[in-house]
């Protein structure tokens, strides 16, 4: 007799009932085991193993060959949601196609990154879309919709947003805390996540490594207080790799792993990415938390339910009706064309004094620079199936006989103290080298997983490299090496056949890598002068932090005395560049970064400046040929002097079609229409501290920056010209309608990105100088006009009112600004909104939460308790001041009570006058052991209140009574 089909296998039942049935059938130990990233199969029920996490930021990553699209910041530069949605569709189709061949490929994709590009020195700038929350959410929503698919029930893949919350530094990223005031939290950091989640195509989020207001994001109360309230769908929260252990090991936030694991699960974490594929440690911690009464079976079931909800939506239990089960689209002509289209649309024309586009049948072009013949990958790229460098793209477009090349590297020999020079053995088969390097990179990525930490002692498992090749040696003539200084003294060394010097796990130096890469990059070195007189150098290998030695059995990074090298320069890169430039009609200097060097996950940049080596190449080209254009190919903005450069472009690393796309833009086949998704500052002096997350108080991003940027947010030129006209603004009901026209007044078909900004004309509190409200990318033939209209909800004009702890639209006039960038405003209009008038703070009824200040000086927000709430303390344990405006004391307050912890003094002043009350907070046992201290005070009416904090005191609340 055939056993009846269990309800959880019945595709005709609602998912909720099916999940209830499966949960009921799972044994307690089976439920616990599911909460690790690598959940085992439940064979008795026919339930397969499940893994959370498949990297898919701009193509399928870490699983071998796949279509590689432009970096996320490049997709952000397209300002084109339709394009980005199509990219998401292609990526998810390739995930499904790869899954059909290899069940280790996961359908729970960890993408996109919606962290805002607040600070351009952030090492992971390449992973985000924009510094603006609305643009970020628009692009992220488009990508998640593409990843999800358009079926009403089943999802093609299940996207998880990274990284919750206010994550914008790699320096001390697992121990540093950002102070995020309520206005910044709601108006900036939460906004990008919220709009994307509310759009309905998000399966979950991943908390970030860092702390916010003194509390690790993996126990953030905002997961339950905000995230889970934005949608009725079950959201799966996946931890970042190793972060659950960090709660005890590096952050010391909890004393035991059982406490930490329980706290993370109760805060909302449903899947623990920790200890790689070994689930036993996390399982034991969960069991220990259950035994200690820190968790209940219901807590475990709630987390498992959210995971099962995603699995059902992915069609795992309905293979016969899953519409995506047979997806086979992989490396299709359509995907290749889309990769090129995306790369073309991401190119931003920064400056053009008439040099571009390149025309003339006999124009001779010199393509020079460190990235002229490179197609760089980043940590979240797949392995290239196709590739196109700028040199290849230009030779294909203009003809090989018209395009010359000079890389511009220094050609050097490293001479030892014995008078010999480093020698590279003969080259192995090139194809074998490339294949092995790709395999090594993929294996390293898979072993470390998302965000694996490498602080402390070097983990040999993270060192990739070949050991079957002969190491370097030394002889009388040696080998001429290509030396590239990437800035900050970080350099790579390359053999004549293109192989990079690298170090494998046996410590020997070999020419074995086709490019720098891996979690711990083994291809970077630093030459350290022995003394100030230039008497030799030590060569430090940065991956192992050891000096290079020359021994009888070969060159290695241990096992001998550090060698003292003399650097003999055979040719300087700028000399080769100058020769090529002098023989050409036009010079293209291709500069930028290697995404694995000097700025990436785990490593922030230290400066906006283009590396000095590349500045020298640009100067040499410009001196030899005034018709020189700079092409910046990078993961982030630079500060570069373009005063004497007639043309400049920027593109993120553009994936497999980067070179072809760039050549088509330079030739004028495509008019550039990318727009900067973040501000390009003129110098490091314009930047806030990396850990200053207060975009309002610190006047950060285009929203608040009051200086003159090198290039503003939204900037980008065209080969066409556009006229704006006919602005109309109408307010009615709960929305504002804005309309205007855009006309192509040039002679070239081109895209224009019309941008609409708004600003409060007379705000009572600091508001953005202007903020993006809407945008649209449109294609126009010469002479064509398009009418654009935007329906804006009144909420688009709201700000977070700390006095009310809610959103509020201030009544009064608002300016509407339409144009081609945040600074290139073509049309202006004004609308008067009714809104809700401000009222004084009712301090007698509600008191004041310390973090709800209007302004502060020297303060930091910290955690009130390990589970919820904020407190405020002096940032350095010294002094701080908090300002609360318009406090209504009514007929009069006679006592003031502060709730605080720590130790110190709190003084009250009114309207800038003298201290009217002083409260001494005695030392408390711990930072969360709050006490109430009361003092007399005499105050009435509506007054501005200033609280002075002195010492390591943590203020939570101030109350008044009559």
UniProtKB/TrEMBL annotation:
| GO MF annotation: an example | xylan 1,4-beta-xylosidase activity
- InterPro entries, per this entry? Actin-crosslinking, BXL, Cellulose-bd_IV, Fn3-like, Galactose-bd-like_sf, GH, Glyco_hydro_3_C, Glyco_hydro_3_C_sf
Query: Which Gene3D superfamilies does this UniProt record tie to the protein?
Result: 2.60.120.380, Galactose-binding domain-like, Glycoside hydrolase family 3 C-terminal domain, Glycoside hydrolase, family 3, N-terminal domain, Immunoglobulins
Please indicate if the UniProt record lists Oxidoreductase as a keyword.
no
The answer to keyword Secreted applying to this record is: no
Entry's family note = Belongs to the glycosyl hydrolase 3 family.
The name this protein goes by in its record: Sugar hydrolase
